[in-house]
Specification:
Oligomer: single chain
Number of strands: 6
Radius of gyration: 19 Å
Helix content: 25-40%
CATH topology: Rossmann fold
Number of domains: 1
CATH superfamily: SGNH hydrolase
Number of helices: 5
Distance between the termini: 27 Å
Largest sheet: 2 strands, parallel
Strand order of the largest sheet: 1-2
């Protein structure tokens, strides 16, 4: 990462916006697909082992940014803590007007309205029955769009 930023800097780049990774343990595709136990869930329904990995990564990224600021004194480096912003939205979803912090708007079936075999907008046959990954009626009350991406309503808050 640092090498790439330095290459851009030495090529003339001076302004950098770097954001960390979000709470992946709160993404429906992680909650649905990767193993975790009930005891590994936090009070918001997120899988703590995956969020801990994200936090470890973010700590190392922030250390790299601090070093880059020293190594590249003419660079303007903005670091954005997207983890805190996204986790804050999930933990305060109701206060922000959302009803579903962990369910997908566009998907099919299961606890999180997510099925890896039935993507948003796709039609497939499962157990002899054709099913479709459909959009919800009101995306503005969902934090997550399709298991991986956030809804426009969420992104509006993130950018605010």
């Amino acid at each position: 990462f640092s090498t790439i930023i330095k290459n851009i800097y030495f090529g003339g780049g001076r302004s950098f916006l770097i954001h960390n990774t979000g709470p992946v343990g709160c993404l429906p595709y992680i909650l649905d697909r990767l193993p975790h136990t009930t005891s590994q869930m936090d009070k918001n329904g997120c899988a703590t082992p995956y969020n801990e990995v994200a936090q470890d990564y973010n700590k190392l990224l922030k250390e790299a940014v601090i070093q880059l600021r020293t190594d590249l004194p003419m660079a303007a480096i903005t670091y954005v803590d997207m983890y805190s912003i996204k986790y804050g939205l999930i933990t305060n979803a109701t206060k922000e007007g959302f009803k579903y912090p962990l369910r997908t708007c566009c998907g099919y079936g299961g606890l999180y309205n997510y099925n890896r075999h039935v993507g948003c907008g796709s039609k497939v046959t499962l157990n002899g029955t054709q099913v479709e990954g459909k959009s919800c009626k009101d995306p503005s009350v969902y934090v997550n769009w399709d298991g991986v991406h956030f809804t426009q309503a969420s992104n509006h808050i993130f950018s605010g």
